[in-house]
Amino acid sequence: MNLIVKLLFLALSLTPAMTLLTWDGGVAWPLFGGITLLFDLNPVPGFFLLLLALGAPLVALPMLRGPRDEPAYALYALLLLGMQLLLLAGDFIGFFVGWEIMTWSSYLLLLRSPRTNLEGAQSYILFNLASAFLLLAGMLVFYSFTGDFRIHAVTGLNTLQQLSLLTLFGLAFLIKVGALPLHLWVPRSYDQAPDVFSAFLSALMSKMGIYALILLLTLFPEGLAGLFGQFLKGPAAGYVLAWIGVITSIVATFKAISQEDMKRLLAYSSIAQVGYIVTAIGVGSSLAIGGALFHSLVHTLVKLLLFIAIAGIVLQTGHRRFIDLGQLIGRMPISFFGVLIGIIGLAGMPPLPGFASKYLIYVSLLEAHWLLLLAAMILSSTAAFVYCYKLIYGPFLGHANSPEARVATEAPWQYLVPQIVLMGLLVALGIFPGWAIEILIDPVLTALGMTPIGAPAWGQLATAYGGYDGVVLMSVFATVFVLVTAIFFLLRGRMRQAGSPYDLSYAGEVPTAETPLHYGAGLGRELRRIPLVGWILSHSTQGFYAGLVRQTQAAAGLLSGLYSGNPQTWILLAVLILAATLTVQTLTGA
Amino acid sequence: MIHHLLDALAMLGMSYVIGFLFYGFYRQFNARVQRRWGPSIWQNFFDNMKFLFKSETVSHGAMFFFGPMIIMAGAITTVLFVPFLKDSIWLQGFSQSGNLILIIYLLVVGPLGNALAVGSSGNPYGVMGVTRGLTRLMGLEVPFFLGLALVMLQHQSASVHVIMAAQDGIANWNLFTNPIAFIVMLLPFIASQNASPFDVVGAPVEVYAGPRVEFGGRLLGILMTQNMMMTVAKLVLIVDLFLGGATTVPILLVKAFALFLLTAMISLAFPRLKTEQTVDFFWKIPLALGVIGVIATVWLPWS
């Protein structure tokens, strides 16, 4: 019985893949009042459905471990249904219904974690409801302008109408992707959600916000450029969006460095990575959108890998903070490799595909002549090395800092299989970036009416600014690595293993088991001494909102100065206005 | 295939030889400025050989061993992706398959491999050194990349070959056509060479232990070798980008040496900065210059 339920659940998690493979032809479902619900699979949502199809079973597998948990399975199935509805919807009604199902089922799944507290749950649902209501308002405004709920390119709107639509939709979707300062719910919920489910939240649900942002491009055929014209060689409206993305990623990167908890670090890193994608969408050229899609793909794979690996560590040791872990490399080698590949992808190091996607975004910024944005993006992507290092040093290297970390064993196979699959996918994509461009990304660009990027070969990534060859890069690096290691062993001399973990060069002293040798939680603390970083870290978004409240109250205080406090004044005023209106109406004969 | 193999070996050999000679010269130069005799110009070669042929090397686990291998592989890959000569079929390596942005990222493979190995050794001082290194990297990359981005934008290409080919004749050197980019990236370049005044990461005397603290014997030899080769790769890269590249090996040597001399003189003239001072400096002076450069060459209508 147990096994059957679990197998059924696993089969359910394959539904996005089934939808992707077997979908043919659109579905139109007439509703009341001449409104028809449309469902069809287009290339743009198809790309995101592919991400869902990849991710859903990989998250479902570790969820199966332990005692049977039917409510969680049911909610997960509902969540997948909602996301597929959202992606297949051809009109805003279906989109909204899918959006709401996704919000509520993920909220209920979040509540099932024993760690969820009132604050976390409240901020999750409040921000997501705000997003949903902005979306609802946006679609009603859209309907009032066009008389149609279908998602299609609108023309003939004036600037004010375009701006109101863009603001409503844009805010709704920026909340979902967690752009600053609307990200408050992200670290809390990713931190408190059930460990495996955090992978789903970060890797897949944040991508729905990205999908929606790209959808905005289909609403306005001339894109962001049609609004306020050009700035240098890119759209001026996109320049603002791009800065929102970059500032989000810089602040979130430094916040990530200062975290002491693995999942919170990953949550902030998600905000930062999605920030890059927002930047690329702001650039809006075909190369940039290609980069945004590629980065979405890479970020999905990387965050699934990292969150599942971290969930395995938490499962085996019961600890989540860097200070309580350490030296797991020997006891959890596969998880170590998972995190290693994950951070290489996250840091955007060649030859993994994180580099390919960042390369596309950099080149698109160069093409747009937006060099200051490029420099800011380099800042956050170099600062990301520090938190990437913290993420691998804290749990795996250094010294074991708790009794559990000293005896932990490798995570169960349900956690390892997804990691191995994801590592394989990341390495393959790193070798064949051109394949991803040709097969996955170019159809989407064509559907968006943009020039496809194209690739001369599957191993090559080509842009107008030049490209690189993933196959050559990977084979050179691998060959050299093997040769260097081989030559090292052939040389005279022998290796000797250090006698004990305390056999260290330690300022002339001999450390003992009592010496605090693990530097996990402290890593990155020194960054506060840099004035800019110190300034960023000493301010919080909550402080920003508190400031906003203070300013609002001050403004209200100014307004209340107009109020005399005597009700008779107001009644007199009302009578006078009434009399004046009547007089005017009589005089003008209306 | 044979051609590629010989070419790669020539590049590696050349970068190694130039590397230890330049370092030997630097030690001489440094000594003479400080009125010492200084070691022989071959001293770095002797040191390196001594390390590489040590009979015993202490290891702290698998990752501690593989870290230096990753660093070495990263260094050799970097050397092979930088074209040493222009208009030649020799000393090209695999540079046709790469570009400038890729090379900038390959330069970082070394520090990250080192970070993994040091973390694995379990020495907290080493990890502190790594953090210093990554912090400095965060400071220097921003103006460094901005300077190079100005060059990439000038030539509408990230390919080192294209940028090199566009600089025919001394008047077309980017050093003269785009001087602000050179000034912006010069100091970060010195920091990326791990030279004074930005060398607090692994400073030999003042800071007891840097990222190299636990390494000894042949592993330290490997680290020293890759450091010398990387230094040459970076010098050649800047020669390619700003000094018009070189068509023959002697010209390359002269240009690289001139650049090395310039950086060495700057290094010797200034005292060492703390890490946070380094980062703050890079985010103020070179970055401000870079912003001025962007405004002057990209934003304003005459550009």
Uncertain regions of chain B: pLDDT < 50 for 5+ in a row?
none
According to DSSP, the number of beta strands of chain B is 1
Helix content of chain B: 55-70%
Number of helices of chain B: 12
Computed over alpha carbons, the radius of gyration of chain B is 19 Å
Over the alpha carbons, how many angstroms does the gyration radius of chain A reach? 27 Å
Label the overall shape of chain A: globular
Helix content of chain A: 55-70%
Topology, number of strands of chain A: 7
Large-scale geometry of chain B? globular
Averaging pLDDT over every residue of chain B, what do you get? 90
Name the structural class of chain B: mainly alpha
Give me the strand/helix succession of chain B.
HHEHHHHHHHHHH
Largest interface: A-B, 74 and 87 residues
Q: Count structural domains of chain B.
A: 1
Largest beta-sheet characterization of chain A: 2 strands, antiparallel
Strand % of chain A is under 5%
Largest sheet of chain B: none
By oligomeric state, this entry counts as heterodimer
Strand content of chain B: under 5%
Task: Write the element-wise H/E pattern of chain A from the N-terminal end onward.
Answer: HHEEHHHHHHHHEEHHHHHHHHHEEHEHHH
